[in-house]
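Re-run with default settings, no changes from the original entry. Doing this only to confirm the output is reproducible before filing.
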Amino acid sequence: MNIKLLELFCLIVEEGSISGAARRAYQSQPSVTKSIRYLEDEYGALLFHREKGQISLTEVGHTLYPHAKAILSEYKNSVEAVRYQNEKIQSQLKIGASFTIGEYLLPSVISKYKKQKDDQLQLFINNTPRILEMLEENVIDLAFVEGEVTGEAFNQRAIANDEIVLFVSPSDPWADRTHILTSDLKNHKLISREKDSGTRKIIQEHLANHRISPISPYLELSTTQAVKSAVQSGLGYGFASRFAVEQEIKNHLLVHVPVADLKISRPLWSVTKPLRFEKPAIETFLRMTKDMLGRDERS
């Protein structure tokens, strides 16, 4: 049933005439008359007596009126409740990010965003496959990943370019070298992320392009921070995003050793699901992220 029909019915009762109801509803009198006939057809009964230009409720009309008022009242309450809840939801932003982006890039963006917006914000950090699963399952609104994104269900945009660099501890034999070659990699101990890591996958792809068979890690760890700590303690060498190690390199806690015949770069992606109603906060956060990371690349 069209709620507008009940509204017109109640207006006629309260105004005492179809013409009065038409004025209040900003409709023509014939249009209101036609709507009431639709309502009577809906209930299968006459709702008004029409005699000599006068209109009055039938017994059925008297029965319907309090129910119609209650329905309209509940409808209004439901609209207000949904609007309130929707505004509350719109002010919540749930972001998922793979480890490198979530731990080293997004904190500064989140800090700036929170200074400008009072939105509730949650950040979930995991590997790329799990973050994309969370997006697919609507656990999060927006994803940031450095790994491969597959499937037609997602919209993806490159937000920045990243470089994967090799690093060692200051006490490592490689620390004083101006560069190494890919042929040197098998002669030292690799400290690596887990198999599902986007960073590890892209390293393996680039090494394969250089006809270097996969290097078995001396130690496999689940976070970049753990890899950095292991390398810093002198256990071997590691690969990581330049964003993840720039502070340690600047403070001489780690040393970047260029690989002369290997350059690994990759795009960092923002990923969303196509939605009929997208939260405005998503585009705001995306624009801020791209602006800030773009500045980092240029600096």
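The radius of gyration is 32 Å. The domain at 90-160+267-298 is CATH 3.40.190.10 (D-Maltodextrin-Binding Protein; domain 2).
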